[in-house]
Every structure is written in structure tokens, then in C-alpha cells.
């Protein structure tokens, strides 16, 4: 491949992987079985990114393993309903066409593990999308580094990744333990815990893998929220939770131990509640993308109600289809909430379009402010619905 025997796209991709391998001191390349590519929204890619993708597609790029895509900048079918400009839709379609030409599945979700790209324990994969990377390493026990969009795409077009970092057992050992002496529940609280611990890790030069103790149980939705948040605020690619995540059972507790108090959790939540209920003009649930269970819960919460603000529910098209079949979509849309499928409130081009966003997602709060210039009102899942309905 490096010599160009498999075409220009494979050669370019192999050059990227070999370069990375040299930088990180990898001894060899290893095969991967699954890839998740981020960097899909035209809002992030711009024309330079679009040209790079079109060049790879024209250069014979072809995915050699199952490869799925992160959210795009719009709902592929219903972008007009979300107020996406036609010029943007045109460019976004070119981006998606380039990926499709390379044999990549146009899944457009940050929860590939809920939509057909589910590796098993110990499998070597190459994923980008920080929340999914943390979920794959921690909750599933698959092995991936925190790839960037280009290196993940290079892995897709070659079927290989350099063996370093989280592909090796030593990098997965915990370096610090966090003890909780209070109970927590719900996506918002788990997300806030990710912020508290993430900010502590972020300040440590060696960025240790954390192991959490004292959490009796966690749902899939709570874990996806926690992983998204600790990846955003701490750059974490992997965590362990004693008695919950699979590798935690084999891990020795490190000597370094920090106790997290309920007061710290409360402070993290309050710091993201900078706006009052009256100031909210936009609400979004589904960062990371909603599971079918969350959509079922939303149908119960919204039945017979009317939404009085712009309210986006972000999920994958595959999950939305299941919601259609179950009758949840009809209940939710009758209430006036909008499904924003294939996209999310962070990667859609909505900079400055709203003033204040209500959400249960601690990760979404970070980007709402940093990327879109919104104030945030962080609330529990059910309370977001309560505040935008009558
Ligand atoms: Fe997913 Fe968008 Fe949040 S990609 S994790 S919903 S910022």
C-alpha cells in the first residue's frame, strides 16, 4: 500500500498511519475490524475538508472494514424543517456522497454501538468521536486510540492502525482512583460527574486513566453521558468503574485516591445553569444521540402536551425508524418536538441562532457556549421537557 500498489488513496492513508506509528513509537501495524469516522459536518470541514474527501474518493479510496460515520451538519431528509440554509445542504450532500463512494455507511451517529457498529470485548478498532471512543474502551472493552477524523479514515481505507496507546494493556491500567460517598442518578448527574473528574485529570500532566469506586449501578444512557462528558472536559479515552465496566474487575486500585463530594457535583451543575427558565429559547436532548429507551420515555413525557419552544431530539436514523415502528415518533411530533436525525445541536450550523439552550447534556453545554455562543441551562432530562411544554 505504501508503495502505491493499491492506488493513491490507500497510499496516502498508509503514509498517515506510518507517520503516526513513528511519532508514537509503534512496533507494527495491526488489523482493525471496525472504524468510526468523525469530521462529517460541513460546518467543521469547510471546503478544504470537502476537497480532501473528494480527492480520496476519486483516488480509489474504498473502506476495507465496517466503517460508520459521525453526525452530519443536518438531517439528510428534513433539513428544511430545521432551518438549514440550502447552500449548506448542498455542500453537506457533497461530503456525504464522497463518504458513500468510499463504501462508508452513512449512519451519521455518535452512538455507532446502538446502530449496527458494535465491536466485542478485546477487539481492536479505530474510532474517532471522543464520547464513542471512551464508551468503546470503557464500557465495551474494545481497544481504540482517540483517533482524529483523518487517521480513522486512513484506518478504514487500509484496514490497519499502528499498535500503540490503548491497544496495549499497559496504557489501560488505572493511575488514579476516585471514590464517591454519595449516590447519583440520571444522565445530567453522570455528565456532571464526568466534568468534575475530567477537570481534575486535565490538570495532571500524565493524564491518568481513572477508576471510579462507590457507584452501585449505571444505565447505558448514564454511561454514555458520563463518557461524553469526561472525554470533553478531561480528554479521557478510557475509564474504569468498579463492578460496572468489564476491565475494572482485573485492575489493582492505584495508591493515588481522590474523594469526590456531593458539593463538587452540585457546583458543576450550577456552573452550567447560567440562564433562567424565561431566557430559554431552544432545547435539545440527545447528546450523545438518544437511545430507543430514551425516546420511549420522551413519548410518555410528551403525550398530550404541547411544546412551546424550538425543541430538537437528536438521534440516529436507525433508532428513529424503530421509534416510528413503535409509534413513539407520532406522539412526539404531535406534541411539536422535532426529530433532528443524522445531526446534533453542536455540529449543525446554528451559531448565534438561539440565545439560551436547555439540555441534560454536560458535553452539549460546553460546545453550546464555545462553538455556538449560547447560554446554557443544564437540567435533568425530565425537567428539560417540563420547561418547554405546557
Ligand atoms: Fe454526539 Fe453531537 Fe454530542 S456528535 S456526543 S450529539 S456533540
Key descriptive features of the protein:
5-stranded parallel beta sheet; 4-stranded parallel beta sheet; 41% helix; 390 residues; binds FE3-S4 cluster; alpha/beta
Describe the structure.
The model has no long low-confidence stretch (mean pLDDT 97). Helices cover 41% and strands 14% of the residues. It is globular, with a radius of gyration of 21 Å. Helix 6 (186-202) runs parallel beside helix 7 (220-234) and helix 9 packs across helix 11. The strands form four sheets. Strands 12-11-10-13-14 form a five-stranded parallel beta sheet, sandwiched between helices. It has a four-stranded parallel beta sheet with strand order 8-7-6-9. The chain is α/β, with parallel strands linked by helices. The longest helix has 17 residues, at 8-24. The N and C termini lie far apart (60 Å). The protein binds FE3-S4 cluster (F3S). FE3-S4 cluster binds next to helix 12.
